Amino acid sequence: MILAVRPITVLPRFTALPHLSGRRALSSAYAPFPDKLAFAFDIDGVLKQGKFILPQAKRVMKLLTGEDGQLPRPVPFLLMTNGGGVVDAERVKLLSRELGVELGENQLVQSHTPLKPAMAEYADKVVLCIGGPKDAARKVGESYGLKKAVLPHDILHWNRSIWDRYKFGPADEELVRHDIDFTTTAVSAIFVVHDSYDWGRDMTIINELMQSEGGLLGTMRKDRHVQKPGGEVPLFFSNPDLEWKSDYPVVRLGMGAFSLSCSAVYKAATGLDLPFTQIGKPHRLTYEFADTMLRRRVKELRGVDQELNVYMIGDNPLSDIWGANNFGWDSILLRTGVYQGGEPSHIPSAICDDVELAVDWAFKNERVRTAKEA
Description:
Elements: E1 37-41, E2 48-49, E3 52-53, H1 55-65, E4 77-80, H2 88-99, E5 108-109, H3 116-120, E6 126-130, H4 136-143, E7 148-150, H5 152-158, H6 170-175, E8 189-192, H7 199-210, E9 235-237, E10 243-244, E11 252-253, H8 255-270, E12 277-278, H9 284-302, E13 309-314, H10 317-327, E14 330-334, E15 350-352, H11 355-373
Parallel strand pairs: 1-4, 1-13, 4-5, 6-7, 6-8, 8-9, 9-12, 13-14, 14-15
Antiparallel strand pairs: 2-3, 10-11
């Protein structure tokens, strides 16, 4: 297999290492050690397929943390995913157990992690949080400082007619908060932090709030066909991925499909484009946030600020490769996820069969780059 190279770069071509039985050998020579080298890894389709951890992922984690003794010191890296719906600290603990290494707070960027500063502006206001099972979205919002985070469950409990196809059970009642009266209390913002578990319900509520009088449920603006600057209620989506790779043989629809559906319904109802803020890969805000966290990680490891050459390793040409290319990072596309071959929509620095080969290619490329700079 020949690794593809972006025409606009000066990166040389390399031939991928052959597949070996058992443990695969990475680059045998790490001298000089590439001090500027850093990595950002997507998770689904790169380190995991569904709930299954790829064996190459565990070996890479042991290598970069220095736990296997092959490197003289650790290489800074973080995990950067458009997944979410779990409190960051909890996801860090879970991934640490799954990957067999201890991850720190500056080594994970979920789709909604960059929303933390935005949520801080609504700390004391009623904010609708959507996504994931049960009260997962509320927990994410509260971990970012929200004091009045509400769920679609809370709204349906207030008035079941909003979406009468859903039948409340005892487990639903346990999720409801009873301290907010939506008759007189407006929703100040909407944060979709993970995949909707009920598209019809959540789309209905979003559509109503975006056409309401100041975020007050049960109302509708007379001028709803005229776009207000920023929209009636600030709306944030945290994951633009149309598709994602699980352990199912065909890619699944992601939150990007949900936001497209919300936009189509709003357009049909008002004739207007749905106003919202989108973060997550490939959007620059997410890459800026990740870059800041990587530099914090370098400071933790080495005690100094340092220039970095970051390699984004992902399986999605749109979210991973396009985003990294636009931000100025190198990018490596894998065949273990969404991308399965052919000419990718966005050209990476290299294409590899798995994450272990990708890391090895990055080490080789840094040695070439260092030699040219010498």
